[in-house]
Specification:
about 250 residues; 2 helices; 10-stranded antiparallel beta sheet; Lipocalin; 2 domains; about 5% helix; globular; Lipocalin-like domain-containing protein; mainly beta
Amino acid sequence: MPAPALAQSAFDGTWKIDLNKVEMPKKPDVLLLQDGMYHCKSCVPPVSVKADGSDQPVSGHPYYDTMAVSVVDDHAIHEIDKKAGKVIADSTMTVAADGKTANFEFTENRGDSTAPVTGNGTMLRVAKGPAGAHAISGSWRTKSYGSVSDNALTRSYKVDGDTLHMHTPTGESYSAKMDGSDTPYQGDPGTTSVAVKKLGRRTVQETAKRDGKVISVAKMTVAADGKSMTIAVDDKLHGSHMSFVAMKQ
């Protein structure tokens, strides 16, 4: 084989997540809207704000510093998250008439990307809220995503010697030695550094950190045919696990 083919890494190229091959976290989101207050009990740290549509200050979250929650009707709420006055996320959650499922839609402005990330999906109720609370109250598990814009599903890798380079359309990137040492992570305020370790010719482990604390560990394995990559993620921040498959483009 020619030398360039021998030198190419199994990770080299652009990969796109297949939404039909995603294993969602089993740990539910826990929400409560009652007596004019909205509580996200599963958020880290938990959030409690007035549900009057005004910007309410929140602390401890790297992506936003205010949250505005509005009651649309008995089955729906609208949420706008901002940081330094800039809209970061705009989302709506609507509970079905039977109360067993809910649909959500979102738009997010990530990093330096000029195009927002958009998407929608479905949630399943796994526990009811207290009597008299708004319909969104209770425990919910994400069932599936109906659609997500390509800029959130796509990322590119390039191996150069013992260094792995990663970048995304939304402006996230790193260049990390594959020896487990920390390197800066760019373009994501919630991730400040990453440590990448090569576990084999087709497997690497990516440990994301925030201010030195591990927030997630992802094991990425390229299939023998080089056409797909399985990513298994342990979310240390929320205590959950998910996995998905990305296809070589």
